[in-house]
Specification:
The complex is a heterodimer.
Chain A: H1 13-18, E1 24-28, H2 35-48, E2 52-57, H3 62-67, E3 78-79, E4 88-93, H4 96-106, H5 110-118, H6 120-128, H7 132-147, E5 152-156, H8 165-177, H9 180-191, H10 198-215, H11 217-249, E6 253-259, H12 263-278, E7 283-291, H13 301-320, H14 366-377, H15 389-396, H16 409-442, E8 448-452, H17 461-473
Parallel strand pairs in A: 1-5, 1-6, 2-4, 2-5, 6-7, 7-8
Antiparallel strand pairs in A: 3-4
Helix pairs in contact in A: 2-17, 4-7, 5-11, 7-8, 7-11, 8-11, 9-10, 9-11, 10-11, 12-16, 13-16, 14-17
Chain B: E1 4-9, H1 15-27, E2 32-37, H2 43-47, E3 58-62, E4 68-73, H3 76-88, H4 92-100, H5 102-109, H6 113-127, E5 139-143, H7 147-154, H8 156-161, H9 167-180, E6 185-191, H10 195-210, E7 215-223, H11 230-236, H12 241-250, H13 256-285, E8 291-295, H14 303-315
Parallel strand pairs in B: 1-5, 1-6, 2-4, 2-5, 6-7, 7-8
Antiparallel strand pairs in B: 3-4
The chains are: A alpha/beta, B alpha/beta.
Region (Disordered) (chain B): 316-344
Organism (chain B): Streptomyces atroolivaceus
Protein name (chain B): ArsA family ATPase
């Protein structure tokens, strides 16, 4: 498959997951857009398509771990039960402190490792530094990759303040641990009183003096002890950070940017797309999460609201004057070609779609239908709305609404409510489409897949499977017009 | 009402918007508020449709009744350099430190130091007084880091005390902690009526309480209107489709037959969501904190919409306690619902 072509296409999720050359898929995006769920759903789908997959999540909600049948995810990959087919799914959650500890232990002797692990500065650094999580996610990714146990590693990125932290933090930590400042700090310990280094030591003491005043001497001593103990590992840190960075640029890696169709999330997504391009990291596409659609999209928000107002007026009028009083509400009804049976139509001639006869039962193309109906079946035991009564309602409608006067007011209220609900939905759809259009105008080259908004959270494997299905099928070109 | 209002929330819940609306709400009736951001995202500038904020307090909006909202993007590095300048008259030595990576070290690597600098700057604004001895800002509102990091961010004492046991950073951490743990501060958490944000809110409140940080309100954001009650929705998914189709036609909708199914489906989704939202609302109510609710904005967050949200806050009694706006004494128990349930 080709990544990053200049032609706007749908994202071929399955092709990506099936590609044996692809060994790492990184899901990134700003907080709250559903990265973790997307990563898990991709993992399930890839495994059920026969691959041996491990999902590395950073901060999963408890429910997500449970949805994979695991009570508690930890730093060791655990096999997920219930995967269909030959493939395997393993899942793990990054424990950044433990990963840091393990890295230390793996690269130095036991005594030195203990000295490092017990150092107060190390303890804060490993648990607290804003970039540690990002760095350790990369460290863990490097470890998983080098074990070569899995066909595919799906990585979820940390919930950073900004999606870009994820790319910067490892470098920042790497350059700190290997940088000039650290060299200066450890200089006294390393070179003692060597004469030629006196100048450096003067600058050094001025600086540590200032920092010592600022932070307290103990703090600096802790740092120095830490740095001295870590000294043997520094080269390693730099090398590893570089190696992981290269791994991310390699053709076997694919980035998926996850966003919701909201301004802020898509703005972050756009930044990320640009940044990945600048870093020569392979972008596979954009996952547009929680997209709203409507199978009744040919009825615009405005028309739905007008109709609702008509009905609400009718409800009042009905009790006194009856339907007759409404005859003059809409003088242009005749202009509406699709509505011969509709004496009250407020429609204008430019509104109805000539492609969709009024009685057509499923006015939407298949992909739209699947987008909105599939999540219904999932995880929802009660009240499937698309029952067999649909057809009878449709058929029954062929009769003109001559007896409308006898319909109870509550039906009018109910219908008005349905129309207002629809108007609200259509406004959301329009807003999302607008936001999305802005993104695609800026980045027409980015393939997109859409995942329909689900009414509830994912609770089990079949929920993840359903999202995987949406990820694979939601790549149809963006609908146009009223949508 | 506490003078330092910290707004946190799970990513994606709109905490920047809520913080901005709160700053506007609290600035009404001629008061002056300072809205600060600490994550370098320039979210405030985007909301107020202004150019990027410098490291400098400037007026960004006028509130109804002549109040003013000022804004500041706190930058840890600048804060540290200012700080060094103030205490050590560093001058060019500051630049040398920067060149060596020492400033970088202190503001990004040294755990907690960055947070002390950020919260320290905000606390300084909270306590700043003019020549007449009156507070310069009636309220300081912080667009804070997300729920998952807020306790660690605010609990700088724990972070730093173990490392910097003496010295100005240590002292500053102590001073900041005194403000943060007092009644002068209230930490609000923004959530949506969805499972994961609500769970995270509950966890965040437990963390804040364990750290003895004062919890303020739960702000439920992006609340969608309930357009149909549940009885009606049950009916809709029942056997009334024929009637609905007829009624649609009467209302002037063409081709209503094809519309009934999707409309009823949407209603069923709505009903499901209403049900889930009720569960989440109950979970939030169980937290025993005062709540505020802000509606979902149909047009997205625009500048006029911010004013609407601020008005919504006012209607719900947020920022309506002008009497104590400039007071100094601890105001325990004055807040309705006694949201300051710390120490529990």
């Amino acid at each position: 498959m080709t990544l990053g072509t200049d032609i706007a296409t749908g994202l071929e999720t399955d092709a990506l997951l099936d590609d044996p050359e692809i060994r790492i898929v990184v899901c990134c995006g700003s907080g709250g857009v559903g990265k973790t769920t997307t990563a898990a759903a991709l993992g399930v789908r890839a495994a059920e398509r026969g691959r041996r997959v491990v999902v590395l999540t950073i901060d999963p909600a408890r429910r997500l771990a449970q949805s994979m049948g695991i009570d508690r995810l930890d730093n060791i990959p655990r096999r997920v039960e219930g995967i269909d087919g030959e493939g395997e799914l393993h899942a793990m959650m990054l424990d950044m402190k433990r990963t840091f500890d393990e890295t230390v232990e793996a690269h130095t002797d036991a005594e030195r490792a203990r000295a490092i692990l017990e150092n107060p500065f190390y303890q804060s650094l490993s648990a607290g530094f804003a970039g540690t999580q990002e760095y350790m996610a990369m460290e863990k990714l490097g470890q998983l990759r080098s074990r070569d146990e899995w066909d595919l590693i799906v990585v979820d990125t940390p919930p950073s303040r900004s999606a870009l932290d994820f790319l910067d933090a490892p470098k920042r930590l790497g350059s700190f641990l290997d940088g000039k400042f650290i060299r200066l700090l450890i200089a006294p310990a390393k070179i003692g009183g060597r004469a030629g280094m006196k100048f450096l030591n003067v600058g050094m003491s001025m600086m540590t003096g200032t920092l010592g005043k600022l932070l307290g001497g103990q703090f600096l001593r802790d740092v120095q002890t830490f740095v001295a103990a870590m000294d043997t590992m520094f080269g390693g840190f730099r090398t590893r950070a570089d190696a992981t960075y290269k791994l991310l640029q390699a053709p076997g890696t694919a980035f998926l940017v996850v966003a919701t169709p909201e301004r802020d999330a898509l703005r972050e997504a756009a930044y990320f797309v640009e940044r990945l391009a600048a870093e020569e990291m392979p972008l596979a596409g954009l996952v547009l999460n929680r997209v709203h659609g409507s199978d009744a999209s040919r009825l615009s928000a405005e028309r739905a609201l007008t109709a609702a107002e008509n009905l609400e007026g009718l409800g009042i009028v009905d009790q006194t004057a009856g339907k007759a009083g409404l005859g003059d509400m809409d003088p242009v009804a005749a202009a509406s070609p699709g509505a011969p049976e509709s004496p009250l139509s407020p429609e204008r001639s430019n509104e109805p779609s000539p492609h969709e006869p009024p009685q057509q039962e499923l006015p939407q193309p298949d992909d739209r239908t699947s987008r909105t109906t599939k999540p219904h079946g999932r995880g929802r035991k009660s009240s499937d709305p698309s029952g067999p009564s649909v057809r009878s309602a449709a058929d029954g409608h062929d009769a003109p609404a001559a007896d409308a006067v006898s319909v109870e007011v509550s039906v009018e209220q109910l219908t008005a409510g349905l129309l207002r609900l629809h108007a609200e939905r259509m406004q959301v759809v329009a807003r999302e489409q607008h936001t999305r259009d802005r993104f695609t105008t800026l980045h027409p080259e980015v393939p997109v897949t859409e995942v329909a908004a689900l009414p509830g959270d994912v609770h089990d494997l079949s929920g993840l499977r359903a999202i995987g299905e949406l990820l694979a099928t939601g790549s149809a070109p963006a609908p146009t017009g009223a949508e | 009402m506490s003078r330092f209002q910290v707004v946190s929330g799970k990513g994606g819940t709109g905490k920047t918007t809520v913080a901005a609306a709160l700053a506007l709400a609290l600035a009404t009736e001629g008061r002056r508020t300072l809205l600060v951001e600490v994550e370098g995202r320039q979210g405030i500038a985007q909301l107020f449709e202004s150019e990027a904020l410098p490291y400098e307090e400037r007026r960004i909006a006028v509130a109804p009744g002549g109040g003013e909202v000022h804004a500041l993007a706190i930058d840890a590095e600048r804060a540290l350099l200012d700080y060094l300048q103030m205490f050590y008259k560093l001058g060019s030595a500051g630049r040398a430190l920067k060149k060596l990576g020492a400033i970088d070290f202190a503001t990004t690597i040294a755990p907690g130091v960055r947070d002390v600098l950020l919260t320290g700057k905000a606390c300084e604004a909270v306590r700043r007084k003019d020549k007449q001895g009156r507070f310069v800002y009636d309220y300081v509102i912080m667009d804070a880091p997300p729920t998952g990091r807020i306790t660690r961010f605010l609990n700088v004492n724990d972070e730093v005390a173990g490392l910097a046991r003496i010295g100005p950073i240590h002292n500053q951490a102590q001073a900041v902690m005194r403000v943060l743990k007092s009644a002068e501060t209230a930490v609000h958490l923004v959530t949506l009526l969805e499972e994961m944000p609500v769970q995270e809110t509950a966890d965040g409140i437990a963390d804040l309480r364990a750290a003895e940080l004062p919890v303020g309100r739960v702000v439920v954001n992006m609340v969608r209107p309930h357009l149909l009650d549940e009885d009606a929705l049950r009916t809709a998914s029942g056997g009334r489709r024929k009637e609905i189709a007829k009624t649609l036609t009467r209302a002037g909708v063409t081709g209503s037959a094809g519309l009934v199914r999707p409309l009823v489906e949407q209603a069923a989704e709505h009903a499901q969501r209403v049900g889930l939202e009720r569960e989440q609302r109950a979970a939030l109510a169980g937290l025993g904190l005062p709540m505020a609710e802000l509606p979902l904005l149909g047009e997205g967050v625009t500048l006029p919409a911010l004013y609407e949200l601020a008005e919504e806050f006012r209607k719900q009694g947020v920022g309506d306690e002008s009497a104590d706006a400039t007071g100094e004494a601890p105001r325990d128990g004055k807040r309705r619902g006694s949201g300051r349930g710390v120490g529990s």
